[in-house]
Amino acid sequence: MSAPEIRAEARRALGICDACGYCNGFCDLFEAARRRPALTEADLAHLANLCHACRNCFHACQYAPPHVFAVNVPRALARMRHQSYLDHVWPRSFAPLLNRPMATVVWVTLGAILLLFGLMLAFAPAAGMPTLDADTDAGAFYRVLPWTAMVWIGVLPLGWSALAIGIGWHRYWKLTRPEGTAAGEPVQPGRALWSALADILDLRNLRGGGPGCNDLDARFSHWRRRLHQTLLSGLGLSFAATLAATLYHHGLGLEAPYPVLSAPVLLGTLGGIALLVAVLGLGWIEWRADPAPLAPEARRLDRAFLGLVFVVAGSGLALLVWRATPAMAPLLIVHLGTVLAFFLLLPYSKFVHSGYRAIALVRESLDRVSIRRDSA
Amino acid sequence: MIGGGAAALCAAITARRAGCSVLLAEQAPEPLRGGNTRHSRNLRLSHEAPTPFTSGVYPADEFWSELARATEGTADPVLGRLFVERSAELKDWLIEAGVPLQPIAGGGLPESRRTAFLLGGGKTLLNRLYALAEQLGVEIRYGCEIRDPVIEDGRLATSTARLDGTSYPSTPRAVIACCGGAQANRAWLRRHWGAAADGFINRGTPFADGELLESLLRQGVQPVGDPKAAYLVAVDARSPADDGGIATRVRCMPEGIVVDAHGRRRHDEGGDTASTRYALWGQRLAEWPDQIGYLILDARGLRAAPPALYPPIQADSLDELAGGLGIGSATLRATVADYNAAVRAPTDERDDWHTVGLDPPKSRHAHPLIEPPFGVYPMRPGITFTYQGLAVDERARVRLAAGGVVENLFAAGMIMAPNLMARGYVSGLALSIGLVFGRLAGEEAARHVRA
């Protein structure tokens, strides 16, 4: 479908929702749509990113196919959401990466691993591979790749990705930001930010108004919400492990690898396990879910991101298990390669949804704050 | 169970829990199952204390007196009392069955003391109750019609089940008829409304054909209600012939004027601004030429109009508008000119825009139609249900015209609702009748089978 067709279908479906309104207890979407009857391009982008894809409104819809109205809001908004990722990606010429996400993940990951192998060989002493023997002494990792090389492998792609993703999110915020209240008086952003943060931590819009979401079919469940937060926690713990390791390195002058009972390893292990559990659970839901309310392009993006997180977490845990064996050096290279790919693909993967959704929630909270003020 | 809406599901679940083996025959295919429950949103229930789903209190006595008034005294007092009292059990029964209700705390609902809203509407209730029925071991057949009932010696002796083009004799020990009214039956409507029936749009399921109802009445069952009567609501004339549901309603008559096919006004558009106006206009349109009316708004009215299923037909002038609709432009211009000339602005705060010396008047919201572009919503009567059903006793057993009951035939839902409302309606009534009498019929049928 072309972008105008995607917008036209989202507009048609939401127009019927505005006249019906039965689903307004499931999430914030339907009241937000009613406040925007014009359904402009910016409105559609905002509503699409506000939608958490819980699918309740599809299974509850009296107008779902085979009804002649053929209303399928989750699918129409998944398409619209994907379109908004394409519209805001930077640089624009990278948009095809989002449309072929599995190939992107596979080739970038393989490329990153090969690059690091090359670097390892380039830095290797003339004597050849230094690490074929079991080697867990302090500094063993840096005999595979020097510390400075590792830092650059982290900093350069992260810098690029932060720039690219920041430009995309900023453009999106400019597109959908509130114009200010009718009185021209800006609302206090503080309360709105807190409320949006609470919505993110609780995933309130995936509660379906209480009973949960239609993850697999018309049954209600809270599993997708829980697994999403497990994944988020896994990313958080892994980030904390990196911070702890930085502190060990610079503050305490200790060199990796660290013992199992150290903060970096414990945090990283917990994070890796959380990521694996979340990815397997979400992957199972993705595999077994009723495809009717889903959009193929969105599913491909989901699967590719889950696959990438799986190899990052899996290779990290494998490195922990086998770091005292000759497999340490290749495992370290594979793990660092997957991390490098993950960093590089942040702006060109499902990861981008975090910012768009957070912005949509902040925008909704701002609306709610201003509505409360108007009615007060 | 004959039927597949809320009444049939409540009856099936109740009878199954009482130990009966139960087969539910739903005429629709699975994706369109559930009759008009699929289009429902809220249920009316009495309650003695506020709940998360209903504010304040709604005593059974108050429910009964409102029911009696709204139905102009047609409600059977014995069944009516039983109904309003047992409606108090519905909230707990639904929650226990896994049907989510929408808490009022979330906002987004109208002030709701008398009715509780289904989270996600009637289809969510259907999904939950079908899942529960299957889990309990109720056998469910989709696309299954029950025809040719034979009543002998006060018993339903046999009937025929048709499934996938094959007919099977059906002789269960008890039958509960929950298959709704006759609103989707064009022949029925033509018989009572003549050619006007062709101007109606059926808002609900196309499977409410009333075939079983008619054959039971031919077999000597006592009819109740009025075969000529129908609950009609003004809907957009561009709606599909069946199944358009809630979204097809036209809502903003008070913001403009309504003219007939000749371009003339016939009623006070500002007279009723409550939700009762939908049914008032439905009944009016049924009597109009070609059963069509045109709601005409100017740019101010278009801005004030709530979201609608179809966009209004727009034009920059009244002549252009009249041409597009096939109305004489001179008549329409004269109607609007007379109306605009009669409009008076409010004189004090409690007053409203109104007309003076106009027949019929527009008593409120009478803003002049002057600001282009002009917009039109074409309207037709949308039939929601018919008002003839099967008479039942207080055990939901179907009565015979000659006296006595059919001992193994029960009825629940809209097929027997005219016992409680032979005319009129109040919001949330239909679903509550289905739920209360579905449960009652399930209990009584189980008692009959196990006796």
From TrEMBL, chain A:
Taxonomic superkingdom: Bacteria
Keywords: Membrane, Transmembrane, Transmembrane helix
Residue ranges of the TM segments: 102-124, 144-169, 230-249, 261-285, 305-322, 328-348
Record's protein name: Tricarballylate utilization 4Fe-4S protein TcuB
Gene field: tcuB
